[in-house]
Design a protein that fits this description.
The chain is mostly helical. The protein has one domain (8-150). Helix content is 44%, strand content 8%. The protein is built from four helices and two strands; from the N terminus they run H-E-E-H-H-H. The protein has helices at 8-42, 103-109, 124-135, 137-150; strands spanning 78-83, 86-91. The chain has a two-stranded antiparallel ribbon. Helix 1 (8-42) packs antiparallel against helix 4. The longest helix has 35 residues, at 8-42.
Length: 156
C-alpha cells in the first residue's frame, strides 16, 4: 500500500521505498539463480577435481544440489544489499583452505599460474551478467514486483 504524497520529493521517496523492497524480495533471488547457473557452466563443467571433494558437486563433476554446502554455487553463501535502487550481490563462499584470496576471486581470475585446468580463470560473473542481459529476467522480476504494488499495467 502506498501513502498519499503531497509533492514530487515525497513521491520519489515512496517509489524508491517500493523499488528497494522489490529488489530485495523479487530481483535478488533471480540474480542469485543466474550466478548459480553461471557457476555450473563456467566452473563445475570445466573439469573434475582430483585432490579434493567439490562442495555442491555430483559424482560426474557437474553441479549437484549445492544448497547448504557452503560452495560457490550455494545461494546461502550469496549475500545482497539494496540501497537507493541499487542491488549488489556477492558470492561469499569461503575457500576450503586459506589462500589469501576470496574464493570467487580465485575462481574468476585464476590462481596466478596455469599448470592445471582448475588454476585457469573461470569467470562466472560475466557469464551471469550476459545471461541477465539476454534474458531480462531481473527486469521482469522488478516489473512483476512493482505491478504487485501499483497494479497490472501501471509499470512500464
Amino acid at each position: 500500500m502506498t501513502k498519499p504524497c503531497n509533492n514530487l520529493k515525497e513521491l520519489e521517496v515512496e517509489i524508491m521505498k517500493h523499488v528497494n523492497r522489490v529488489l530485495n524480495k523479487n530481483v535478488a533471488p533471480v540474480v542469485k539463480e543466474s550466478i548459480q547457473s553461471a557457476v555450473s557452466s563456467e566452473v563445475y563443467s570445466k573439469g573434475i577435481p582430483e585432490w579434493y571433494d567439490r562442495r555442491g558437486g555430483n559424482k560426474y563433476g557437474g553441479m549437484g544440489e549445492p544448497k547448504g554446502t557452503g560452495s560457490l554455487a550455494d545461494v546461502d553463501q550469496m549475500h545482497h544489499t539494496v540501497n537507493g535502487g541499487t542491488l549488489i550481490v556477492t558470492d561469499d563462499a569461503e575457500p576450503s583452505a586459506p589462500w589469501g584470496k576470496r574464493l570467487d576471486e580465485a575462481i574468476s581470475y585464476g590462481y596466478g599460474y596455469e599448470e592445471a585446468w582448475y588454476e585457469v580463470a573461470r569467470p562466472f560473473f560475466p557469464e551471469a551478467i550476459e545471461d541477465l542481459k539476454s534474458s531480462k529476467a531481473h527486469v521482469e522480476a522488478l516489473k512483476d514486483g512493482l505491478e504487485d504494488i501499483f497494479g497490472k499495467g501501471n509499470v512500464r
